[in-house]
Amino acid sequence: MIRKKWNSGWHVSKPGGSPMMAAMQGGASATETVTLPHDAMIHEKRTKETKNQHQTGFYPGGVYHYTKNFDVPKEWADKNVTLEFEGVYRNAMVYVNGDYAGGHPYGYTNFYIELDDFLKYGQNNEIKVVANNSAEEDSRWYSGSGIYRNVNIMVGNRLHIAADGVQITTPEVEEDCATVQVAVRMENKGYQRHKVRVVTELSDGEGKISGKETTLVSVFPNQEIPVRQRILVDTPKLWDVDEPNLYTCTVKIVEDGEVLDEVKETFGIRTITMNAKHGLRLNGKEINLRGSCIHHDNGIIGAATLESAEWRRCRQLKEAGFNCIRSSHHPVSKAMLDACDRIGMLVLDELSDMWTRTKNNNDYAQAFSDYWEKDVEQMVAKDYNHPSVIMYISGNEIQEVASAKGAELNRRITEKFHALDGTRYVTVAVNGLLACVDHMGEIMCSIMGISMEEMMQMMAAQAAPKEESGTSVDAANGSTDLMSGPTADAFAKNEIVTGLLEEFASVTDLTGYNYLTARHEMEHEMYPNRVILGTETLPADIVRLWKIVKENPHVIGDMTWTGYDYLGEAGCAVWYYDGRHGFTPNWPISIAYVGDIDITGYRRPMSYYREIVYGLRKKPYIAVERVNHYGESTIKTAWMWKDEIASWTWDGYEGKPAVVNVYSNADEVELFQDGKSLGRKPVGEETDYYVSFETRYQPGKLEAVCYRNGVEDGRDELVTAGADVELCVDSDKKVLAADGADLAYVTICLKDKDGNVNLQAKKEVTVSVEGAGSLQGFGSADPETENDYDNTVWETYDGYLLAVVRAGEEAGEIKAIFSSEGCEKQEVIIKVE
């Protein structure tokens, strides 16, 4: 059956009190008409009183009722009608004309509701969806609330192709031809026997027919019939990250010349292989995963999963040098998969953040045991035809790792994935600290070469007031940081840790390690057949990590935490200069502040640094550590790198010391300040691809020149911007589709008369949107603001703001007007057609 979006004409409300009292009051509460997808949480008022605290960025949860009235034609009495919900957060309960039709507890997998038993034909019908996200402390990150992904309706004959009933594989791929296998699952929910032809047609990206097959099938009443076809494609255009060629598969059920049903699926022809000698190979070519973990929210518009937002995020990650994403820590959206297919981004799709042991008071561990098999089935069905998906991850930082029952469950989940899809690999992301927490004392004693009694004495001394204690818990390196540094490496290599991880890690096709970098190389000697992936790693460790990947074929890549910033886990990498700690409830911090790309889409210096380490950028890159915080101490988390921006505008700090970092993979770099050389220094892998220069700030120009073999081979510059600035606005689109979902991203910055962006300048900007669209979100990347993304007035942060404009469902024109005191108004005109 063909899916059609069913997103318009919904009403959302948030009834107060108990469900029974809300029903007795007729459900009376303020309602708002919305077009899905819709994130209810982003419109909540943030409060430091919420139990979620920094985990969701101080956004509270709630119970939300979504209703839609629709006319059901009499003709549908002979049809099969099904709704698909791509994502409802969370504990969805679906009612049709007041009767319970089905539900789904997990917030990240799609599910189907058959409406046939509940519809009133020839009448107006009502559907109500209750999304219950009121049990706070249910997520470690910003989850969003409500129907935040698409809803689709499928209306078909009693004999039809089942939902997700077309599965496509490419078992044999040669240079001159490929075999495409199409498995079709038909359902006959009627009482008649049918003799039909299953007609399958393959076409390339230009619409040319590439292959065709017809199969005669007898379909009996109340039966499900599988049909398998093998179709030859000559000179196939392969899908890979550089040339993401796609084909379309059209399957029709034809009876006596009449088409009873039709399904279209896109797919790619490609092969993936993996072993410890050649690593990961895509179409026979070795490829290292330049990876980014990502959460599912889209920054200032929250968790609303709109195709344009997912496409933009995927494209920006690709442009920043990544070729792979990990959907942490839950199944990725269909919209993101479509974007990855078309842009050429590999995907590691992940099942869950927990299994049977909770990480939060009300998280999914309470339902996992009862629902994981269904979740795996839905996840595989969603992913099956997407060439971008190369691997499933069954769980993240599972706490059952060191137990025999944990290994058994890992084996069961892995086998379930393989039974449903034998074409992709399965791994699990192992965090040694969480896995071995019950044995931490024993492990630390082993690392430090002391007894448990000595350990207890040292811990007591450490806890004593400083003036009474001259002792600290001190490993051989003088540190007990188990996330980074020598002690972390000693922990990762410890033989007790090895023993605790052994059975669990042996279950999957490859071993995924979170923050256990020191194991990546050593495991090849211990387990020569094992393939390793850094499923989650520290940004600051990129040089060491990428060197390991380049030099060890059995290590197939690195997935940094993280490529794109996100809401929730607030303060993960915020720079505090007032004694506060990261990863703790610091109101009003709402953003993790850890991404290479911030929540507005602006690339931070770390992004260019990573691109240089990957060998993808020849030009040097200049970044300046914030001059206003020179010499100040801060408490760093392991996810922090440097508090720097690409700016040489520091009004009021003339003559003050400044640290300038130049990133490059050349042989040498030279830094010039106003034409005067500050020195020429060797650079490259030996210096971790950057060098630092200390100078004093004066308005003017910094210029970095890199040299290879003594010859100049690229330069970068920073110029002081003038204090008098004007608003500059730029929309990534001039035309939107009148589908109620298309988005235009309008970047607002402050530039001087010469076009230089002033990152230091601060201006309050007001936006108004009128015409054939609306303002979906407005805001900056400031992690510490108390402002809301619904507001139309925001102050620039590091020189920038972002407005997201959403098209309506009627053709016309959108006018977005931006104003700021002392600046000329700016308008953006966007056509909707």
From TrEMBL:
Gene3D superfamilies: Galactose-binding domain-like, Glycosidases, Immunoglobulins. Keywords: Glycosidase, Hydrolase. Residues 64-153 form the Glycosyl hydrolases family 2 sugar binding domain. Residues 729-828 form the Glycoside hydrolase family domain. Belongs to the glycosyl hydrolase 2 family. It comes from Parablautia intestinalis. Residues 655-711 form the DUF4982 domain. InterPro entries: Beta-gal/glucu_dom_sf (IPR036156), DUF4982 (IPR032311), Galactose-bd-like_sf (IPR008979), GH (IPR017853), GH2_Domain-Containing (IPR051913), Glyco_hydro2_dom5 (IPR040605), Glyco_hydro_2 (IPR006101), Glyco_hydro_2_cat (IPR006103). GO terms for biological process: carbohydrate metabolic process. Pfam families: DUF4982, Glyco_hydro2_C5, Glyco_hydro_2, Glyco_hydro_2_C, Glyco_hydro_2_N. Residues 166-270 form the Glycoside hydrolase family 2 immunoglobulin-like beta-sandwich domain. This is Glycoside hydrolase family 2 protein. One of its GO terms (molecular function) is hydrolase activity, hydrolyzing O-glycosyl compounds.
